[in-house]
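Let's practice the habit of predicting before peeking. Look at the sequence and jot down your guess about where helices and strands might fall. Then scroll down.
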Amino acid sequence: MGTIFNIQKFCLHDGDGIRTNVFLKGCPLRCIWCHNPEGLESTPSLSFSQSRCTACGRCLPGCPARKIEDGKIVIDRSLCTVCGKCAKACLNGACEVMGREATVDEIMDDVLKDKMFYDRSGGGITLSGGEPSYQPEFSLELLERSKEAGIGIAVETCGAGPRPFYEKAADLGTTFLFDLKCMDPERHKKFTGADNRYILGTLEYLFSRGADVVVRMPLIPGVNDTDEDIDALASYLKENEGRYRYAEIMPYHSLGVGKTRKLGGEPAHEAETAGEEDKKRWLARFEKNGVPVRISE
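Done guessing? Here is the structure:
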């Protein structure tokens, strides 16, 4: 049994071909720009959209965490048990529980419905999050079952999980979509809550295994996209040329800001979605360093 918060079908950007992305709960990092804050905690969390709420009061009976003030629903998160009754009562979709328990069989039944599309496109299943290695046994069982079914397997990872997870996933022939956020350990710690020495050790291990690795670099304007940051990333990629399939820039988008507020928090970083000028500058800087990179949509 594992905890997931979403399954997205017919995805085209997280691995080869047409894919089903399974998003798992829990992550050891706290990136200030997190795009999926609903995946940070390992347990279910409540998302509440004030703009959708009409303060009808259907969610109030029996809930000690809610009251109406100035015509609006106010939630005391310290009293909320994420029981889900509000989501069932709400007629406007203002309340949503992010996260549910699921078995491997349940997920595989869903994934296998689209096997014909994987077969035709060279696609498969991608485990994302959150961080799949945060639920190592569950993730590995999903990968094993998918491989047995003839489905391509990929994992999107920050590299901070336990080494045995990466060893077993590599043995299965997993494609690793590996986030490389910043080369300087102290700056990495400032942005994510952890330095990157263990993470780089994980990536070196995967390189040494000859694993199928795609290096993905989330670049955030004004945070980790200085010329010095990009030069350091480019230097690392240059040193390891031939050990990864390709490198890809993942431009910052601001969707995580609204998600964080719906979860009852305030975003640690708030900025405009990366623009075309940002992308041109990033590509030009990598090109100057003689390192080819792609840029995702």
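How did you do? The mean pLDDT is 96.
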